[in-house]
Design goal:
This protein is α+β, with helices and mostly antiparallel strands. The chain has helices at 7-14, 39-45, 87-93, 127-141, 169-173, 191-194, 206-211, 228-242, 246-258, 284-295, 310-314, 370-387; strands spanning 55-58, 77-80, 83-86, 96-103, 106-112, 121-123, 264-267, 280-283, 299-300, 303-304, 331-332, 338-342, 346-351, 356-362. 30% of the residues lie in helices and 16% in strands. The radius of gyration is 20 Å and the shape is globular.
Amino acid sequence: MTRPLALAVALAAAGLSATSAFAQVPLDPATPNFLMWSPELQSRGYRTIEDIFQVNTIERGETVRPLVMAERQIDPTFEHAGKSWTVDSYMEAFNVSGVLVLKDGQILLERYGMGRQPADRWTSFSVAKSLTSTLVGAAIQDGKIAGLNAPVTDYIPELKGSGYDGVTVRQLLMMSSGVKWNEDYTDPKSDVATAGATPAEPGMNAMVSYMRKLPRENPPGAVFNYNTGETDLAGVLVANATGQSLSAYASEKIWKPYGMERDAIWMLDPSGLERAGCCISMTLRDYGRVGQFMLEGGMAGGKAVVPEGWVAQATSAQIDNGDAGYGYFWWMNRDGAYQASGIFGQSITTYRDDGLVIVINSAWPQATGRDLSLARSALLTAIHAAAK
Protein backbone atom coordinates (compact mmCIF):
# COMPACT_ATOMS: atom_id res chain seq x y z
CA MET A 1 0.00 0.00 0.00
CA THR A 2 1.43 3.37 -0.98
CA ARG A 3 0.63 6.73 0.57
CA PRO A 4 -1.97 5.12 2.83
CA LEU A 5 -4.39 7.24 4.75
CA ALA A 6 -3.53 7.84 8.36
CA LEU A 7 -5.60 6.51 11.19
CA ALA A 8 -8.07 9.30 11.37
CA VAL A 9 -9.06 8.62 7.80
CA ALA A 10 -9.96 5.15 8.95
CA LEU A 11 -12.42 6.69 11.34
CA ALA A 12 -14.03 8.75 8.62
CA ALA A 13 -14.08 6.05 5.95
CA ALA A 14 -15.37 3.29 8.16
CA GLY A 15 -17.61 5.39 10.35
CA LEU A 16 -15.74 4.22 13.43
CA SER A 17 -16.20 5.62 16.90
CA ALA A 18 -13.80 7.84 18.76
CA THR A 19 -12.60 4.81 20.71
CA SER A 20 -10.90 3.39 17.59
CA ALA A 21 -7.14 3.16 17.41
CA PHE A 22 -5.19 6.38 17.96
CA ALA A 23 -8.33 8.51 18.25
CA GLN A 24 -7.72 11.91 19.78
CA VAL A 25 -9.49 13.09 22.91
CA PRO A 26 -10.66 16.72 22.56
CA LEU A 27 -10.78 19.10 25.51
CA ASP A 28 -14.47 19.66 24.69
CA PRO A 29 -16.33 16.36 24.11
CA ALA A 30 -18.67 18.20 21.73
CA THR A 31 -15.84 18.75 19.24
CA PRO A 32 -16.62 16.99 15.93
CA ASN A 33 -14.47 14.07 14.79
CA PHE A 34 -11.03 15.43 13.85
CA LEU A 35 -11.32 13.93 10.36
CA MET A 36 -14.74 15.32 9.63
CA TRP A 37 -14.21 18.99 10.41
CA SER A 38 -16.03 21.60 8.33
CA PRO A 39 -13.91 23.94 6.19
CA GLU A 40 -14.43 26.70 8.75
CA LEU A 41 -13.29 24.47 11.60
CA GLN A 42 -10.31 23.25 9.56
CA SER A 43 -9.23 26.83 8.89
CA ARG A 44 -9.43 27.77 12.55
CA GLY A 45 -8.66 24.46 14.22
CA TYR A 46 -5.56 23.50 12.26
CA ARG A 47 -4.02 26.74 13.57
CA THR A 48 -5.14 26.31 17.19
CA ILE A 49 -4.81 22.62 18.02
CA GLU A 50 -3.72 23.51 21.57
CA ASP A 51 -7.16 25.00 22.21
CA ILE A 52 -8.89 21.80 21.15
CA PHE A 53 -6.72 18.84 22.19
CA GLN A 54 -4.27 17.96 24.95
CA VAL A 55 -0.73 18.86 23.86
CA ASN A 56 2.86 19.17 24.96
CA THR A 57 5.11 22.04 23.94
CA ILE A 58 8.36 21.75 21.96
CA GLU A 59 10.19 24.77 23.32
CA ARG A 60 12.28 27.01 21.08
CA GLY A 61 15.59 28.49 22.17
CA GLU A 62 16.87 32.01 22.68
CA THR A 63 18.08 32.56 19.13
CA VAL A 64 16.29 32.21 15.80
CA ARG A 65 17.97 30.99 12.63
CA PRO A 66 17.21 33.65 10.02
CA LEU A 67 15.66 32.81 6.69
CA VAL A 68 16.51 35.66 4.33
CA MET A 69 14.82 36.52 1.06
CA ALA A 70 16.79 35.51 -2.00
CA GLU A 71 17.56 38.20 -4.56
CA ARG A 72 15.57 36.18 -7.08
CA GLN A 73 11.92 35.45 -6.29
CA ILE A 74 9.82 32.98 -8.27
CA ASP A 75 6.12 32.88 -9.12
CA PRO A 76 5.65 29.95 -11.50
CA THR A 77 2.66 29.22 -13.68
CA PHE A 78 1.77 25.76 -14.93
CA GLU A 79 -0.74 23.72 -16.88
CA HIS A 80 -2.82 21.05 -15.19
CA ALA A 81 -6.09 19.30 -16.03
CA GLY A 82 -6.59 21.51 -19.07
CA LYS A 83 -6.22 24.78 -17.15
CA SER A 84 -3.53 27.37 -16.55
CA TRP A 85 -2.61 27.87 -12.90
CA THR A 86 -0.70 30.35 -10.78
CA VAL A 87 0.47 29.71 -7.24
CA ASP A 88 -2.34 31.95 -5.98
CA SER A 89 -5.06 30.22 -7.99
CA TYR A 90 -3.79 26.82 -6.83
CA MET A 91 -3.83 27.96 -3.21
CA GLU A 92 -7.38 29.26 -3.48
CA ALA A 93 -8.71 26.19 -5.28
CA PHE A 94 -7.10 23.67 -2.91
CA ASN A 95 -7.48 25.45 0.44
CA VAL A 96 -3.76 26.06 0.94
CA SER A 97 -2.69 28.05 3.99
CA GLY A 98 0.98 28.30 3.15
CA VAL A 99 3.63 27.66 0.50
CA LEU A 100 7.32 28.15 1.25
CA VAL A 101 10.24 27.49 -1.09
CA LEU A 102 13.84 27.51 0.13
CA LYS A 103 16.82 27.36 -2.23
CA ASP A 104 20.18 26.95 -0.51
CA GLY A 105 18.51 28.12 2.68
CA GLN A 106 17.08 31.34 1.20
CA ILE A 107 13.43 32.11 0.50
CA LEU A 108 12.42 32.03 -3.17
CA LEU A 109 8.68 32.07 -2.48
CA GLU A 110 6.55 32.58 0.62
CA ARG A 111 2.80 32.83 0.38
CA TYR A 112 -0.06 32.59 2.89
CA GLY A 113 -3.76 31.91 2.49
CA MET A 114 -6.95 31.13 4.41
CA GLY A 115 -6.31 34.06 6.77
CA ARG A 116 -3.11 32.50 8.10
CA GLN A 117 -0.34 34.82 9.27
CA PRO A 118 3.43 34.06 9.42
CA ALA A 119 3.32 33.51 13.20
CA ASP A 120 0.45 31.01 12.96
CA ARG A 121 1.19 27.33 13.46
CA TRP A 122 -0.45 24.59 11.36
CA THR A 123 -0.86 20.91 12.21
CA SER A 124 1.31 18.36 10.44
CA PHE A 125 -0.72 15.15 10.51
CA SER A 126 1.69 12.36 9.44
CA VAL A 127 4.58 14.68 8.63
CA ALA A 128 5.30 14.03 12.32
CA LYS A 129 6.35 10.46 11.49
CA SER A 130 9.42 11.73 9.68
CA LEU A 131 10.41 13.86 12.66
CA THR A 132 9.96 10.85 14.96
CA SER A 133 12.41 8.83 12.86
CA THR A 134 14.88 11.71 13.16
CA LEU A 135 14.57 11.55 16.95
CA VAL A 136 15.42 7.84 16.74
CA GLY A 137 18.59 8.87 14.91
CA ALA A 138 19.34 11.46 17.58
CA ALA A 139 18.98 8.84 20.32
CA ILE A 140 21.44 6.60 18.45
CA GLN A 141 23.88 9.50 18.14
CA ASP A 142 23.53 10.14 21.89
CA GLY A 143 24.23 6.49 22.70
CA LYS A 144 20.75 6.02 24.15
CA ILE A 145 19.92 3.45 21.45
CA ALA A 146 22.68 1.02 20.53
CA GLY A 147 22.08 1.31 16.77
CA LEU A 148 19.75 0.47 13.93
CA ASN A 149 20.35 -3.23 14.46
CA ALA A 150 19.41 -3.11 18.13
CA PRO A 151 16.40 -5.23 19.05
CA VAL A 152 13.21 -3.29 19.66
CA THR A 153 12.59 -5.45 22.72
CA ASP A 154 15.68 -3.99 24.40
CA TYR A 155 13.79 -0.69 24.71
CA ILE A 156 10.22 -1.93 25.00
CA PRO A 157 10.68 -5.00 27.20
CA GLU A 158 6.94 -5.68 27.32
CA LEU A 159 7.28 -6.86 23.71
CA LYS A 160 9.55 -9.77 24.67
CA GLY A 161 7.99 -13.11 23.83
CA SER A 162 5.81 -11.50 21.13
CA GLY A 163 5.94 -11.18 17.35
CA TYR A 164 8.49 -8.41 17.88
CA ASP A 165 11.18 -10.82 19.08
CA GLY A 166 14.11 -10.38 16.71
CA VAL A 167 12.75 -7.17 15.13
CA THR A 168 15.34 -4.41 14.88
CA VAL A 169 14.96 -0.67 15.17
CA ARG A 170 15.71 -0.37 11.46
CA GLN A 171 12.96 -2.80 10.53
CA LEU A 172 10.49 -0.87 12.69
CA LEU A 173 11.36 2.37 10.88
CA MET A 174 10.95 0.63 7.51
CA MET A 175 7.50 -0.66 8.52
CA SER A 176 8.74 -4.18 7.88
CA SER A 177 8.55 -5.85 11.29
CA GLY A 178 6.74 -8.85 9.82
CA VAL A 179 4.13 -8.63 12.57
CA LYS A 180 0.63 -9.16 11.22
CA TRP A 181 -1.30 -5.90 11.07
CA ASN A 182 -4.46 -5.04 9.16
CA GLU A 183 -4.72 -1.38 8.12
CA ASP A 184 -7.97 -1.81 6.16
CA TYR A 185 -9.90 1.35 6.89
CA THR A 186 -13.19 -0.12 5.72
CA ASP A 187 -13.02 -3.18 7.98
CA PRO A 188 -14.43 -2.49 11.48
CA LYS A 189 -12.54 -5.55 12.73
CA SER A 190 -9.14 -4.46 11.41
CA ASP A 191 -6.28 -3.70 13.79
CA VAL A 192 -6.35 -0.02 12.96
CA ALA A 193 -10.03 0.06 13.95
CA THR A 194 -9.87 -1.99 17.13
CA ALA A 195 -6.50 -1.28 18.75
CA GLY A 196 -7.62 1.79 20.65
CA ALA A 197 -10.85 0.17 21.81
CA THR A 198 -9.07 -2.79 23.43
CA PRO A 199 -8.45 -2.39 27.18
CA ALA A 200 -4.77 -2.20 28.06
CA GLU A 201 -3.13 -4.52 30.51
CA PRO A 202 -2.71 -2.86 33.91
CA GLY A 203 0.22 -0.44 34.02
CA MET A 204 1.06 -0.88 30.34
CA ASN A 205 0.89 1.53 27.43
CA ALA A 206 -2.28 0.75 25.48
CA MET A 207 -0.58 0.39 22.10
CA VAL A 208 2.20 -1.80 23.49
CA SER A 209 -0.42 -3.93 25.21
CA TYR A 210 -2.33 -4.42 21.97
CA MET A 211 0.57 -4.97 19.62
CA ARG A 212 2.43 -7.50 21.76
CA LYS A 213 -0.48 -9.89 21.18
CA LEU A 214 -0.19 -9.79 17.38
CA PRO A 215 1.27 -12.83 15.56
CA ARG A 216 4.23 -12.94 13.18
CA GLU A 217 3.24 -13.06 9.50
CA ASN A 218 6.50 -12.49 7.60
CA PRO A 219 10.21 -12.62 8.42
CA PRO A 220 11.42 -9.27 9.83
CA GLY A 221 12.64 -6.93 7.11
CA ALA A 222 11.14 -8.88 4.23
CA VAL A 223 7.85 -7.11 3.43
CA PHE A 224 6.72 -3.48 3.66
CA ASN A 225 3.38 -3.26 5.45
CA TYR A 226 2.14 0.20 6.36
CA ASN A 227 1.46 0.01 10.07
CA THR A 228 0.26 3.09 11.90
CA GLY A 229 0.70 1.37 15.25
CA GLU A 230 4.43 0.96 14.76
CA THR A 231 4.96 4.70 14.51
CA ASP A 232 3.60 4.95 18.04
CA LEU A 233 5.91 2.12 19.11
CA ALA A 234 8.84 4.13 17.72
CA GLY A 235 7.78 7.01 19.96
CA VAL A 236 7.55 4.76 23.00
CA LEU A 237 11.00 3.41 22.13
CA VAL A 238 12.56 6.88 22.02
CA ALA A 239 10.88 7.99 25.22
CA ASN A 240 12.01 4.83 27.05
CA ALA A 241 15.55 5.06 25.72
CA THR A 242 16.07 8.74 26.50
CA GLY A 243 13.96 9.05 29.65
CA GLN A 244 12.37 12.17 28.14
CA SER A 245 9.11 13.03 26.46
CA LEU A 246 9.29 13.33 22.68
CA SER A 247 8.55 17.06 22.99
CA ALA A 248 11.41 17.66 25.44
CA TYR A 249 13.80 15.63 23.32
CA ALA A 250 12.78 17.39 20.09
CA SER A 251 13.33 20.72 21.84
CA GLU A 252 16.78 19.72 23.07
CA LYS A 253 18.00 18.17 19.82
CA ILE A 254 16.36 20.32 17.11
CA TRP A 255 14.15 23.23 18.13
CA LYS A 256 16.62 25.00 20.40
CA PRO A 257 19.96 24.36 18.66
CA TYR A 258 18.67 24.80 15.11
CA GLY A 259 16.94 28.07 15.94
CA MET A 260 13.23 27.50 15.35
CA GLU A 261 11.26 30.72 15.52
CA ARG A 262 8.33 29.59 17.67
CA ASP A 263 7.44 26.85 20.14
CA ALA A 264 5.80 23.89 18.42
CA ILE A 265 2.83 21.93 19.74
CA TRP A 266 2.63 18.11 19.79
CA MET A 267 -0.76 16.46 20.26
CA LEU A 268 -1.08 13.78 22.94
CA ASP A 269 -2.82 10.44 22.91
CA PRO A 270 -5.36 9.49 25.60
CA SER A 271 -2.55 8.16 27.83
CA GLY A 272 -0.70 11.48 27.75
CA LEU A 273 2.09 10.45 25.36
CA GLU A 274 2.89 12.34 22.18
CA ARG A 275 1.33 10.86 19.06
CA ALA A 276 4.58 9.83 17.41
CA GLY A 277 2.85 9.49 14.05
CA CYS A 278 0.78 12.62 14.03
CA CYS A 279 0.07 16.21 14.66
CA ILE A 280 2.94 18.56 15.41
CA SER A 281 1.93 22.19 14.89
CA MET A 282 4.57 24.68 13.74
CA THR A 283 4.93 27.83 11.63
CA LEU A 284 5.42 27.65 7.89
CA ARG A 285 9.01 28.83 8.22
CA ASP A 286 9.72 26.24 10.93
CA TYR A 287 8.47 23.53 8.56
CA GLY A 288 11.03 24.93 6.14
CA ARG A 289 13.72 24.82 8.82
CA VAL A 290 12.91 21.12 9.44
CA GLY A 291 13.47 20.47 5.74
CA GLN A 292 16.65 22.54 5.74
CA PHE A 293 17.94 20.72 8.83
CA MET A 294 17.62 17.44 6.95
CA LEU A 295 19.12 18.90 3.78
CA GLU A 296 22.15 19.99 5.82
CA GLY A 297 22.70 16.45 7.07
CA GLY A 298 21.10 16.79 10.49
CA MET A 299 23.44 19.44 11.88
CA ALA A 300 22.24 21.92 14.52
CA GLY A 301 24.27 24.42 16.50
CA GLY A 302 27.43 23.19 14.81
CA LYS A 303 26.92 19.62 16.08
CA ALA A 304 25.72 16.42 14.45
CA VAL A 305 22.30 15.55 15.85
CA VAL A 306 22.15 12.20 14.04
CA PRO A 307 24.90 9.73 13.10
CA GLU A 308 27.01 10.27 9.99
CA GLY A 309 25.10 8.97 6.98
CA TRP A 310 21.79 8.83 8.84
CA VAL A 311 19.99 11.41 6.72
CA ALA A 312 21.11 9.82 3.46
CA GLN A 313 19.81 6.45 4.63
CA ALA A 314 16.57 7.72 6.13
CA THR A 315 15.67 9.68 3.00
CA SER A 316 16.49 7.06 0.40
CA ALA A 317 14.69 3.86 -0.51
CA GLN A 318 15.39 1.15 2.06
CA ILE A 319 12.54 -1.15 1.08
CA ASP A 320 10.24 -1.71 -1.88
CA ASN A 321 6.77 -0.33 -1.14
CA GLY A 322 5.33 -0.85 -4.60
CA ASP A 323 6.10 2.73 -5.61
CA ALA A 324 9.35 4.72 -5.48
CA GLY A 325 10.40 3.20 -2.17
CA TYR A 326 10.28 3.95 1.54
CA GLY A 327 13.04 5.07 3.90
CA TYR A 328 12.84 5.54 7.66
CA PHE A 329 9.35 7.06 7.87
CA TRP A 330 10.17 9.10 4.74
CA TRP A 331 8.56 8.63 1.30
CA MET A 332 10.48 8.59 -1.96
CA ASN A 333 9.03 10.42 -4.99
CA ARG A 334 9.48 9.26 -8.56
CA ASP A 335 11.14 12.55 -9.52
CA GLY A 336 13.99 11.94 -7.07
CA ALA A 337 12.69 14.02 -4.18
CA TYR A 338 12.04 12.70 -0.70
CA GLN A 339 8.99 13.75 1.24
CA ALA A 340 7.38 13.95 4.64
CA SER A 341 3.68 13.65 3.94
CA GLY A 342 0.47 14.15 5.89
CA ILE A 343 -3.20 13.92 5.06
CA PHE A 344 -5.29 16.94 4.05
CA GLY A 345 -2.35 18.27 2.04
CA GLN A 346 0.70 18.64 4.32
CA SER A 347 4.15 18.04 2.86
CA ILE A 348 7.84 18.85 3.07
CA THR A 349 9.37 17.94 -0.29
CA THR A 350 13.15 18.07 -0.71
CA TYR A 351 15.28 17.85 -3.84
CA ARG A 352 18.65 17.23 -2.29
CA ASP A 353 20.68 17.68 -5.50
CA ASP A 354 19.14 21.13 -6.03
CA GLY A 355 19.30 22.33 -2.43
CA LEU A 356 15.53 22.85 -2.62
CA VAL A 357 12.89 22.55 0.12
CA ILE A 358 9.20 23.04 -0.68
CA VAL A 359 6.62 23.20 2.13
CA ILE A 360 2.88 23.08 1.52
CA ASN A 361 0.22 23.29 4.25
CA SER A 362 -3.40 22.75 3.28
CA ALA A 363 -6.92 21.99 4.42
CA TRP A 364 -8.07 19.76 1.58
CA PRO A 365 -11.79 18.94 1.55
CA GLN A 366 -10.91 15.28 2.03
CA ALA A 367 -7.95 13.51 3.56
CA THR A 368 -6.45 12.43 0.25
CA GLY A 369 -7.40 11.73 -3.33
CA ARG A 370 -5.87 11.17 -6.73
CA ASP A 371 -6.96 14.52 -8.15
CA LEU A 372 -5.65 16.34 -5.08
CA SER A 373 -2.28 14.59 -5.26
CA LEU A 374 -1.90 15.13 -9.02
CA ALA A 375 -2.58 18.84 -8.68
CA ARG A 376 -0.01 19.18 -5.90
CA SER A 377 2.52 17.22 -7.97
CA ALA A 378 1.97 19.63 -10.86
CA LEU A 379 2.68 22.58 -8.55
CA LEU A 380 5.80 20.89 -7.15
CA THR A 381 7.08 20.19 -10.66
CA ALA A 382 6.54 23.82 -11.66
CA ILE A 383 8.30 25.13 -8.56
CA HIS A 384 11.19 22.70 -9.06
CA ALA A 385 11.67 23.90 -12.64
CA ALA A 386 11.38 27.59 -11.74
CA ALA A 387 13.90 27.27 -8.91
CA LYS A 388 16.72 25.90 -11.07
